[in-house]
């Protein structure tokens, strides 16, 4: 990558056209009317019973966990949840989980594993909360522990990126046997704005950064980082919540049925192998 005399990274010539498509996906993923996790739960499940608290510090509303009846089977749903009104956004901390949220998620997932219940996670966060209080309570440790323990769960785990999957904040719930993405969702190690700020010291170049990050569902599918793209209605999920939910239900049902035929040891081995292959481009 070339730099100018001041040390700033230069945007390659002819690179402006491709990022526009990726940036449009970023804007769709952040659309204010796009359905959030609980909007899908209302449409695909019955008898959702929420689990609160991490048994150490408190409850984090940015992550919602609970068991529900899904297509005739008991499933644990672990979801990152954003708010829609100003009051809800503040209550949910704008969808940015704190350590107690990840510890609550892990407590619920270990409970599901104990009773042999499959797990479905929904990713929808700009990233884990970076505040001092979160760091004091062990944000990095909580995320790292989730990554390790999710890899060991002897039950089916299906992950769905429904809107914005931001860095470790999303990956802490993203270690699954099957990883799905909605068509207009994005999943990346860093937001385009922060990437542009680091490379160019200019957040105005976020549109180019979005293309360079390869964060769309199509990009990640080609790279082998996800398993399937879930189509959305024309215009995006925000235009037709019910149709999007129906498609999501069908895909989840199929994958949970396929995974139900594996033993716990096989599920762990398959999950481990899946993530070990990521980024390995050599024979």
Helical percentage: 40-55%
Mean pLDDT: 91
Number of strands: 8
Distance between the termini: 27 Å
Total of DSSP H or I helical runs spanning 4+ residues: 12
Which class best fits the helix and strand makeup?
alpha/beta
Question: Beta-strand level of the residues, as a percent range?
Answer: 15-25%
Q: In angstroms, what is the radius of gyration?
A: 19 Å
What overall geometry do the principal axes of the alpha carbons give? globular
Task: Give the H and E element order.
Answer: HHEEEHHEHHEHEEHHHEHH
Sheet with the most strands, sense and barrel status? 8 strands, mixed
Contiguous runs where pLDDT drops below 50 for at least 5 residues: 1-5, 7-19
Report on the structure:
This protein has 283 residues and is α/β, with parallel strands linked by helices. Helices cover 43% and strands 18% of the residues. The protein has helices at residues 17-29, 37-44, 86-91, 99-114, 132-136, 139-152, 167-171, 192-200, 206-212, 217-222, 241-259, 264-277; strands at 46-51, 63-70, 73-80, 119-125, 157-166, 178-182, 186-188, 228-230. Strands 1, 2, 3, 4, 5, 6, 7 and 8 form an eight-stranded mixed beta sheet that branches. Helix 2 packs across helix 11. Mean pLDDT is 91; it is low at 1-5 and 7-19.
Write a brief caption for the model:
The protein is an alpha/beta fold. It has helices at 17-29, 37-44, 86-91, 99-114, 132-136, 139-152, 167-171, 192-200, 206-212, 217-222, 241-259, 264-277, and strands spanning 46-51, 63-70, 73-80, 119-125, 157-166, 178-182, 186-188, 228-230. The protein is globular.
